[in-house]
Design a protein that fits this description.
binds zinc ion; 5 helices; 11-stranded mixed sheet; alpha/beta; binds N-(4-sulfamoylphenyl)-beta-D-glucopyranosylamine
Amino acid sequence: RDDWDYMRNGPDTWVDKFPMAAGSRQSPVNIETDRAESDHESLSTKPLRWKYPAYASRKLVNPGYCWRIDCDGEGTFLSGGPLMDDIYKLEQYHCHWGCSDSRGSEHTVDGQAFAGELHLVHWNTTKYRTFAEAAKAPDGLAVLGVFLKVGKTHEEMEKIARMLPYVSHKDEVVDIVDPIDPSKLLPDDNGYWTYLGSLTTPPCNESVTWVLFKKFIEVSHHQLNIFRNLRKFPRGEECPCHENHGAVINNFRPPLPLGNRQLRECGS
Ligand code: BO1
Ligand code: ZN
């Protein structure tokens, strides 16, 4: 079931093997900022809050379509805002990017793409017993999304960039020794948009409360190039593709219709 990608078996074909990809609550979407409803009653009475201990980030993985950091959710915490009183734990975080700095994000804002998008993936521990169980439920997952813009070097992202050469090929994994603090990858302003959506990769489960920060973070062009150096195939195997040396690039799903879903906003 690993037979999907962003090229030949790209987003247009996912529905053939993953029927949930054809649903009416899919992600990403284009955020039409004019359509966002400021909802102070339900979003601001309980602010969105998170806590990530220093040693939550455990392993850096190349699954062949992005980089991902697998976490020990113990002691991690996300609650409030659209999640209300439910408590979510951090499962993993990962990134999407382009082949050039002009595209790469999954969500777009008024039609504009960013150079990349970071996803912090959490699951509802108040209602469910495992990530897999939560991933099947409409209120099971919460993803914090952060847009990446090209600018100055990001110090916390640099710790990840420095480790990526050790997982340059598919299925490679390294233990994280120098702690990486995912809260340092979040912008310094808490304003966000929120809507109900899905996983943006197969199986595209409609189980995600999306929270997208309005403020982007800056990463350098060089840091994005290090992401673009990851390979889609295992070490020692022949590069299966004739293009781009099998580089992991353009690993984003294009926006799908918001339809009649509510888009809410909180803060500037
Ligand atoms: S994302 O944040 O929407 N891009 C996203 C996409 C997929 C996952 C997490 C976040 N995780 C997936 C796993 C699959 C698993 C699925 C349901 O969750 O990668 O292996 O089948 O549990
Ligand atoms: Zn993602």
